[in-house]
Amino acid sequence: MTEVSTQQRAYEQADLDADLRWWAAANYLTVAQIYLQDNVLLREPLSRDHIKPRLLGHWGTSPGLSAIYTVLNRIIKESDSSWLYITGPGHGGPALVANTYLEGTYTEVYPKISLDADGVKRLCRQFSTPGGIPSHVSVQTPGSIHEGGELGYALVHAAGAAYDNPDLTVACVIGDGEAETGPLSGSWKIPAFLNAARDGAVLPILHLNGAKIAGPTVLGRSTDAEVTDYLRGQGWIPTFVEGDDPAQVFSDLRAAIVEARRRIGEIQSEARADGAGSTLPDTHWPAIVLRTPKGWTGPKEVDGKKIEGTHWAHQVPLSGVRENPEHLAILEEWLKSYKPEEIFDDNGAIVESIASLAPVGDLRMGATPYANGGRLLSPLRLPPIEQYALDIPEPGDVSFETTRVLGEFMRDIYTQNSDADGGGTFRLFCPDETSSNRLGAVFEVTDRAWQLPVTEYDDNLSPSGRVMEVLSEHLCQGWLEGYTLTGRHGVFATYEAFAMVSASMVVQHTKWLQHAATLPWREPVASLNILLTSTCWRNDHNGFSHQGPGLIDLVLPLSPEVVRVWLPPDSNSLLSISDHCFRSRDHVNLIVVDKQPHLQYLSLEEANKQAAAGASIWDWAGTENVEGELPDIVLASAGDVPTQEILAAAQLLREWVPYLRVRVVNVMDLMVLLPQNDHPHGLSDDKFNELFTRDVDVVFGFHGYPRAIHQLVHGRTHPGRFHVRGFSEQGTTTTPFDMVVLNKMSRYHLVIEALRRARRAPEKAEELVAYCNNQLARHHDYVREHFEDLPEVRDWKWSSPSGSRD
Description:
The longest helix has 30 residues, at about 5-35. The protein is an alpha/beta fold. About 35% of the residues lie in helices and about 15% in strands. Strands 12-9-13-14-16-15 form a six-stranded parallel β-sheet, sandwiched between helices. A five-stranded parallel β-sheet has the order 1-2-3-5-4, sandwiched between helices. A five-stranded mixed β-sheet has the order 18-20-19-21-22, sandwiched between helices. Helix 12 packs parallel to helix 16 and helix 18 packs across helix 22 (about 745-755).
């Protein structure tokens, strides 16, 4: 062991003393934010009038979060390294606000929260009050990409941030309550996917303070040996830092982080010497387990009840301060324990000996550009979509697996947005379904990311791969969220029904983008693109469990400034929409399209035009042959399978009752159905009525639940004239056409409904209804006898009356 000189010991003691002063300042500001509306510098005796009438916030985790922040500041200053701080216990928001205020970032972002007595007062008065800031580490908090309100996603966001960011280390604090969630449990698998040669590093800090809001936690009550076995099995080697003596804990934590950083550098140096295509055998990454008391340095006991170190410290340890003089006295003593007279100068500014401990510029964790990814964002280099377009001689003449062209498009996006070191700015995230979803062309230029052993029987696995496949929707979407929020681009592709597994993540990310748009300092980031395929209508072999279009309904009520829902009917439409979505910013783009072979209708030029308009009349499919006269019925569709059934219904009407005036409308952008004032894409009433008329009945074939269309057209002229057929929770393992029959959205059901709703009762209408009912009966018997659809259905193609689209 190398002997440490007296001079070195003194220097280290001075650093420790300084860091403990920063920590005391952060803890003081945290408590002040929770409790105080006045006398925030404690320059006079505390009275009930100085206390907020409503006490909100979370104290228990905050001192631990500030301790980690403090020590990381020291490491950053010593190493000039870039760190991103992700806070799983995001309810410790006042701690992160306090630390970013101490480092000066908060005031730079919000000049009204100045570095003086008035600024401290504003800082405290804004916390968890009307017109102020939330109690969590929200989008308003500088340095944050992770709100932490919904637990489970800290480590997955950390991994997404680290991918393709080789110079970044992500310190990810995981609370022991969050450690009990399913997504977090799955997230420990990062070492199987993180490439040390081209990615950054994640340093998990499992903060075990022993309790969640109302009781103990599993890992908090587990032994060190049990926690070690658990983490080692996931690819981590933990170092334990434990205790309640601040000086000892800070010294041990600093040593643990220094050693972790040394080991990370060692792993990365070895990998980068060998290149991104190599993997390191038996590599385990460092992790830290920090055991400190919950509510550390707060009241130890209140009214005879132990507080520090118990779940009673989780939120507001002293809740009756305005009414209880004893509690008020305890609060005053608590605040004074941090020695505010040594934190603030005469003007209320942070004293220089504390303020100077912060890193400088963008190295401050509150100011890092990695937490404001738009600062790092470069537009994707996108190849021209014309080179992937299908040639469509006539509508409905070609059948093709719709999503295959998107795989080819993304293959070349990978190529054009990769760098010489094996990294890049674009990734596909998919739960083991890339090839199943017909996106396998990407494997022509890259593999699946995989850092574990590979056998001769594996396909497209390698350490250098940049297609992210893991059988967890939470991980796929969370990785993409972390990836886009730190300045990159991507898409999350999954089976439609199982997108609901991570549905609440969509809600949370939408809320983040919604509020980010109101903050001028938050630069726009790439949109979150979600591709839903293997849809409810064509899960032929999987059955009812795989049939659920609910994500559409989930996103429709969310922020209109953020949410977009796209239902391309064919491949060229998908290309046009995807090109638009990859270029867009600050949106959640939901694209729903099936992977199976489908009839193709639109040329790329037509697809581009309709994608821009959102919806259009398909003149070639209707029978409006008298200009200026209203149609007798409008047939509308949104989605690939409904479009085919609507067209088949239109063709039956044309053949049986050609004098019935039928208009066919296709909707590609679902949000155009909303009134203009309700969504940026909403059509004006005049434009809406140009498509659907003012009072003609509309029979609408829809991909999802019918209620969605009724919700969207509410407020339009005579919305009761819309008669929607869609998915009605009828499903099983059956033929494609039987699915639409079961849900009463088949061409025969649509024809019957159209005849019932038409403005005129045409001749031969009764005969056509009888024919449709007979076909439904034939279908019922045929599929059960032959296990496939009727030939006239199975082999159906659109035939234009004139033989052309004109």
